[in-house]
Design a protein that fits this description.
Among the domains are: 187 residues, 3-Layer(aba) Sandwich (Dimethylsulfoxide Reductase, domain 2), CATH 3.40.228.10; 148 residues, Barwin-like endoglucanases, CATH 2.40.40.20. By secondary structure, it is α/β, with parallel strands linked by helices. A seven-stranded mixed beta sheet has the order 6-5-18-17-16-7-8. The chain has a six-stranded mixed barrel with strand order 22-26-23-25-24-27.
């Protein structure tokens, strides 16, 4: 039987769509499918609620719309924008209380949107610069859009003809409206190389791959967010227990999950467990807080799993009917000693037992997984352990449990057009053979191997790149600036699309293209919960000549490959992308939003599988605790625990020299990655980069709040101001990611202080997990000491 399962999995891996092996539910559903299975129930309820899109009020032209990039954001909240009728300027933004996604709640970045839209720092026109003068702020020359687009097209085409199309790249960021754009643009150029250069693709990808392998599709907690009528939906039930694991979701709001949803279900009675090395806002309000050593979540999860199994707390009926490999999972759990797991995690065993019992006892338990579980080399092992625990407790696809959340209406976000490339070109994806998981879901080059290839030019190097929605020199938290900077400098041509001059543009770009704000563009967000369409808000006097990433992609794509871009307008692209809904882009814009609704227990109804049979979208039709697909490609078939690459148990001598376990990548609600540090009202909240250090330890070292400190590991060092606090354990620290100083004179430093303060200086490529995913960004080994007076003279908050 095992051999048959392996053969079926291998057959699925060769199917047409990347990710089909045990990835997302089938991408293209017909309109009849959505209608037949109740996906259009929202329309019958009158989901638009007859709400106006535009009106006038007290001297303002007011527009109801959605905020999603630029500037960046993971969410897509409903907002109401106020434009002064006389000046044409955006003056105020409020949350839309009618919007089912955020129900009126917004973050400081949304409230500050007028400051960004009206910023004097905006890039307003296309610019070019002689590649020989990279880094020179005086070398920029304004050009027309036609000249800019022709220059990008002609230069990339010439490089492709001379060196091969496979030497071209696109780079994409996160939380921006550039996923399908950057990928389809790459494929239109004839290259498979879509890049992140974030070690181990340690941002969402380990979670995505783990869900794909285990359950057949991406999942998140059910907090009623997929119902337009939210808590009033008769099929919905609140989680009895909700676990916030590795994220402060009220600040991060990442990957389409809005942190306020957790707050609301806790207010409605849910018990909350938080697993986090830091005492976050969520942890301070939890019924149970588990504070592990960073990057050993797999130890915590495996210990919990052992409790559920050994105390017979699991759902026998669900396990028997809907899971595969339970006996093997039991044997795997017996390989680990419970007390040793707790000791390695630096957690009280009784807290682990209490958490496991709470999770198992809850009739409806859900887990919100965050970035921290990705940012460790065993991210996939950790996530699969957590999924296994939820599965054997019967909390999958249940009201108030862990629910499937594919893109609504089969909207194409990932690798749209990849299968249109010749098969030999598809196999040029870096890591295609070494890390088969790379082929599933969103197909990106494996970053650690891609940087090595760029360095060695074996089997070939890269020559030209188009970057969209990314600032790789100072973002991603784990881009290893010491190696990424020189390989990007080697490129013969770089075009960057962004809304302002960044360190990446100033240092590397030959062409800079101005990107429109969310209130200035035609666009659409369709992820997880529903679809919202955007158009330029009424009355707004748009400054300069910005274009949306989608329009830039369309204009370039029609030049590179008209067959892949047969549309004449951006609206036509979005009409195609949501055609299975039965609506057009304009329909959804007129309705304000389209919420398809949520079916529960779809595995019982044949709604998850392409063949229409009951079960899950995996090779066995069950939740795969033991993965035949992983077996077929030589990967670990079961959840497992592993230590970080560097640490007190793996490299004790190094730990003696660098005794502070240092995290990075935690989110601040006032900044999005490397953005917003030029917005005065947001920068005033936190003027400088901070290193959180335990207050007792700080006193022993003679550190005080506000001191400039060196944070040094074995490859580099950066400066942060001290924040002495009990929220981190003794011997641990947390440094801010994404920092640069926009106020710096680029004539003095075109990197705007990145080398001084950005933790990418500390990050090290080559520590990816055995699957190619995950990297130990949350467990850097560092030493911390005071800067002398001269070193402390950094260009920071003094400019404000």
């Amino acid at each position: 039987m095992e051999n048959r399962l392996v053969r079926r999995t291998l057959s699925a891996a060769r199917s047409e769509r990347p990710g089909a092996a045990s990835g997302h539910p089938p991408r293209r559903r017909s309109f009849a499918f959505w209608q037949e299975n109740g996906k259009r129930r929202g329309k019958e309820r009158g989901m638009h609620k007859d709400l106006p899109t535009t009106w006038e009020e007290d001297g303002y032209v007011v527009t109801r719309t959605t905020a999603w990039s630029a500037p960046g954001c993971h969410s897509g909240c409903g907002i109401i924008c106020y434009v002064n009728k006389e000046t044409g300027k955006l003056e105020k933004v409020e949350g839309d209380p009618e919007h089912p996604y955020n129900q009126g709640h917004i973050c400081p970045r949304c409230a500050a949107l007028p400051d960004v839209v009206n910023s004097e720092e905006r890039l307003l026109y296309p610019m070019k610069r002689d590649p020989e003068r990279r880094g020179d702020p005086d070398a920029w020359e304004r050009i027309s859009w036609d000249e800019a687009l022709d220059l990008v097209y002609n230069t990339m085409t010439e490089l492709g003809e001379k060196y091969g199309k496979h030497t071209l790249q696109t780079f994409c960021g996160t939380g921006r409206d550039i996923l399908w754009q950057s990928q389809r643009l790459a494929y239109s150029m004839g290259t498979p190389h879509v890049e992140s250069y974030s070690s181990g693709l340690a941002c969402w990808m380990p979670r995505l791959m783990s869900y794909n392998v285990s359950t057949g599709g991406y999942m998140m907690p059910d907090c009623s967010e997929c119902h337009e009528d939210r808590y009033d939906n008769p099929e919905y039930k609140d989680p009895e227990v909700i676990v916030v694991w590795g994220n402060n979701c009220v600040a991060s709001n990442s990957d389409g999950f809005f942190g306020q949803w957790v707050v609301e279900v806790v207010k409605r009675g849910a018990k909350m467990i938080v697993v986090d090395p830091r005492l976050t806002w969520m942890a301070a309000r939890a019924d149970l807080w588990i504070q592990p050593r960073p990057a050993v979540d797999s130890a915590v999860a495996m210990a919990m799993l052992k409790v559920v199994i050994e105390e017979d707390l699991y759902d026998h009926d669900f396990v028997d009917r809907w899971t595969y490999g339970f006996e093997a999972l039991v044997e795997r759990s017996r390989e680990y000693d419970f007390d040793e797991l707790c000791e390695r995690a630096w957690v009280d065993p009784e807290k682990i037992r209490k958490a496991a019992r709470m999770i198992a006892a809850g009739n409806h338990t859900a887990v919100q997984l965050g970035l921290a579980v990705d940012m460790q080399r065993n991210g996939i092992g950790a996530v699969r352990s957590i999924i296994a625990m939820l599965a054997i407790c019967g909390d999958i696809d249940q009201p108030g449990g862990q629910i499937f959340t594919p893109e609504p209406y089969d909207f194409h976000y990932f690798s749209w057009g990849f299968k249109e490339l010749p098969e030999d070109v598809q196999k040029m994806v870096v890591g295609y053979d070494e890390y088969p998981f790379i082929r599933m879901g969103m197909v990106l080059d494996q970053p650690d191997l891609a940087v090595v290839q760029a360095e060695t030019e074996e089997p070939y190097g890269f020559t030209g790149a188009i970057m969209m929605g990314t600032n790789p020199l100072c973002c991603m938290s784990n881009a290893d600036l010491n190696r990424v900077y020189p390989v990007l400098q080697k490129l013969k041509f770089i075009c960057v699309c962004d809304w302002r001059i960044t360190p990446t543009i100033q240092t590397l770009a030959d062409v800079a293209l101005p990107v429109a704000m969310c209130v200035e563009k035609t666009g659409m967000i369709a992820k997880r919960t529903g679809a919202c369409a955007m158009s330029p808000i009424a009355g707004l006097d748009i400054q300069g000549e910005p274009k949306s990433d989608a329009e830039i992609t369309l204009l370039l794509g029609k030049r590179f490959n008209p067959e892949m871009f047969p549309w004449d307008t951006v609206e036509e692209i979005y009409d195609f992308l949501v055609k299975d809904s039965g609506w057009s882009w304009q329909d959804i814009r007129n309705m304000n939003w389209a919420w398809p609704g949520q079916e529960y227990r779809r595995y019982e109804k044949g709604l998850l599988r392409a063949d229409g049979q009951p079960g899950f979208n995996t090779s066995t039709g069950r939740i795969e605790l033991y993965s035949p697909f992983a077996e077929s490609i030589g990967e670990n078939v079961l959840p497992y625990y592993d230590e970080p690459y560097y640490g007190p148990y793996t490299t004790p001598e190094l730990y003696k020299e660098y005794p502070v376990i240092t995290m990075t990548g935690s989110r601040n609600i006032q900044f999005f990655h490397s953005e917003h540090r030029d917005v005065k009202k947001l920068r005033e909240i936190q003027p400088d980069p901070l290193v959180e250090i335990n207050d007792v330890w700080a006193k022993e070292q003679g550190f005080e709040d506000g001191d400039w400190l060196w944070v040094e590991d074995k490859i580099g060092r950066i400066k942060h101001r001290a924040k002495c606090t009990p929220i981190v354990k003794y011997g641990m620290a947390n440094v801010n990611s994404g920092w640069w100083f926009p106020e710096t004179d680029p004539h003095e430093d075109p990197m705007y202080g990145c080398w001084d303060v950005n933790p990418n200086v500390l990050s090290e490529l080559g520590q990816q997990g055995p699957t190619g995913f995950g990297a130990d960004v949350k467990a850097l080994l560092c030493k911390i000491y005071k800067c002398d007076e001269e070193d402390a003279n950094v260009k920071a908050s003094t400019a404000h």
